[in-house]
Amino acid sequence: MPVARPEPQEPRVIAHVDMDCFYVQVEQRRNPALRGQPTAVVQYNDWKGGGLIAVSYEARSFGVKRSMRGDEAKRVCPGINLVQVPVARGKADLNLYRSAGSEVVAILASKGKCERASIDEVYLDLTDAAKQMLLQSPPDSPEEIFMEAAKSNILGLPSDASEKEKNVRAWLCRPDADYEDKLLACGAIIVAQLRVRVLEETQFTCSAGIAHNKMLAKLVSGMHKPAQQTVVPSSSVQDFLASLPVKKMKQLGGKLGSSLQDDLGVETIGDLLSFTEEKLQEQYGVNTGTWLWKIARGISGEEVEDRLLPKSHGCGKTFPGPKALKNSASVKGWLDQLCEELSERIQSDLNQNKRIAQTLTLHARASKANERDSTKKFPSKSCPLRYGTGKIQEDAMKLFESGLHDFLESQNTGWSITSLSVTASKIFDIPSGTSSILRYIKGPSSAASQAIPDFSSVPEDPSLDNNVYATPIHEEKCEPSTSENEDGERYSDISAKQCPTSEEKRISKKLPEVKGTSSILKFLSRGQSALHEKRKSDGLICSPQGPGSSSEANKAEEHNVAAQRADRSNINSGTEPSASNAWMFNVEDIDPAVVEELPPEIQREIQGWIRPSKQPSTKRRGSTISSYFPPARS
DNA sequence: ACGGTTGCCACT
DNA sequence: TAGTGGCAA
User: Fold this and answer.
1) Which residue is nearest to nucleotide B7 (CA to C1')?
2) How far is the CA of A261 from the C1' of C5 (A)?
3) What PANTHER family would the database entry show (predicted)?
């Protein structure tokens, strides 16, 4: 449900930039012969010619729609070029489009705060840039207004007049305009410049909306497509919303929008104005009610986030109809493929962006053999994410088994899986300031403190995918000791690799800063626990029993966890490209003995996130796996 | 055989 | 929290 935020006092300049039929443009850049041609991008083509996921404007003029299959598109537009999405590991591979999207983001992020909203959309907060322009070089004569900006569409200005461009030029530099309108005019000029840069540097066209908030910018970015931009002056908001069908508003395209129509008789956003905030709250709850009341008035305080990268990575595939998976072997096969791709993607994210994912989630859709219309859903399951393809595959399969168990509720019926996906989420930046925090987790009394990797030595070179970043655990010294580097800082490990030189620390300054101490320690704790466990299992140290240690009840479970931990310390187990990630383990494993040595305020922080470790486990209450896996049928 | 494959968010 | 549900493109 949407939540209303207070609109900031000061007027903002917000843009929403939307790539035009993006996947098609990416393919047209790869194969310029497709330019100007009716073209669509399809994924797979064995069933009815594949599904369209992007359609060029030439093809749209023939009536080709996104919802069509390839065969249907051919019927409507026999000359259409159908380009297939690349396939890797038996599934659609969108990496080409993802990296093209990144090219665009890199350019758009240059003039202000930039938020990647999807693979082909961004929001920009251009308030500062617009203010600066207004101070230094406000638009003052129609002739000097840059060509692309002059092609803007200004909501509320007569747009079909023969004098359109002249009117727009005049609007952009009206000397008697409100301060707000002047800011928007500057925003329009900046966005026009950015769009030209995008075109010059990537060959991609895009459309944009410029307004005082995200909601309005988004609403109009697609109003004049392709390759055009639209401005929303405050003065035109009311008329615009008055006739806007509710379903066009973001968040109202689904059930909430239908309810507004069916239950309240609201057809346009303007119709909402006749309801009090209280009435809307009564109908839809406090948050949604207030949100509706505000959007009816064009109010949306949502801020543009400063984020250029996605918040999660997911890979999935559907297995429609006869393709449904009906035994665990085929599920495992596909899950392995999905996990391979996911592993590759989070590994690149780590290497290129210095980010680590913490949670692995498995989703599936399933039906039971007997019940043709079983309403029950396959539950999603998640667990801490361990790096390494083999580990992810193992854990994903365990999550699947656990989900299947819950799904079947110990009935002995057959099943079929129609979709599978794995997602890596809760992604954090690796802190740049590790060395200063390192000082807190050290000391001869804490044998567990040795495994903290020094991320300032992470190589910058993105081509070094799968390289070793932390000293492999089995190569580390086991005797605690303390040393000083040339800056006089003390480190808990004398391994040369782990004691950053001045040069390494200089490099580390280029890494992203992290806001709170908590996230830094959270991160460091991963490596700390890993080595500690390794030493325990090697009999090198005695484990100090912490306050949170196990009860009899979960002894069996804990044994399982211990076994898995031992496995983590193994170098190059199975399919691993390298065991370099042995240091990345459970946040919740941090050693209480280490915590005791920290300053009280940091201790307090840490206490909050120490919790019982939960590994993916197959809980089989009184039954075995084989009892609910039906015998494989070919 | 549902447009498939992403991705985001709020709520509990 | 992990899990569900909704929305969007």
Assistant:
1) A118
2) 21
3) DNA POLYMERASE ETA (PTHR45873)
| Distance between the alpha carbon (CA) of A389 and the C1' atom of B12, Å | 33
Sheet holding A51-55, edge to edge: A51-55, A39-43, A81-84
- CA-to-C1' distance for A1 and B11, Å? 8
Nearest to A594 by CA among A541, A556, A516: A541
Q: How confident is the model at residue A130 (pLDDT cuts 50, 70, 90)?
A: very high
Q: Is A121 a catalytic residue?
A: yes
**Looking at strand C, which nucleotides approach a protein CB closer than 7 A?**
1-9
- Tell me how far apart the alpha carbons of residues A388 and A344 are, in angstroms, rounded to a whole number: 9
Q: pTM value?
A: 0.75
Within 7 Å: CB of A612 and strand C? Answer: no
pLDDT at A351: 84
Q: Report the alpha-carbon distance of residue A393 to residue A350 in Å, rounded.
A: 19
pLDDT band at A429 (very low <50, low <70, confident <90, very high): confident
The confidence score (pLDDT) of residue A529 equals 39
Non-local CB neighbours of A121 within 8 Å, separated by 6+ positions: A16, A17, A18, A19
Q: Which residue has the tokens 């991160």?
A: A523
Task: Over range A334-341, report the average pLDDT.
Answer: 93
Res A531: pLDDT: 37
- Judged on CB neighbours under 10 Å (0-12, 13-18, 19+), A103 is middle
The dihedral formed by the CA atoms of A251, A255, A261 and A267, expressed in degrees to the nearest 10: 30
Whether the CB of A384 is less than 7 Å away from nucleic strand C comes out as yes
Asked if A14 contacts A212 with a C-beta cutoff of 8 angstroms, the reply is yes
Each residue of A186-232: pLDDT tens digit? 999 999 999 999 999 999 999 999 999 999 999 999 999 999 999 99
Nucleotides of B under 7 A from a protein CB: 1-11
Taking a C-beta distance cutoff of 8 angstroms, is the pair A138, A186 a contact?
A: yes
Contact A624, A600 (CB under 8 A): no
Tell me if A386 sits within 8 A of A584, measured CB to CB.
yes
Instruction: Tally DSSP H helices, then E strands, for chain A.
Output: 22, 17
Measured from Cα to the C1' atom, the residue closest to C2 is A382
- pLDDT higher for A230 or A475? A230
A212: left (phi over 0), alpha (psi -120 to 50) or beta: alpha
Q: Could you say which of A27, A58, A115, A121 is catalytic?
A: A121
Rounded CA-CA distance A383/A539 in Å is: 28
Mean pLDDT (chain A, rounded): 73
Chain A residues 199-228 with Cβ under 7 Å of strand C are 218
pLDDT tens digits, A79-92 = 999 999 999 999 99
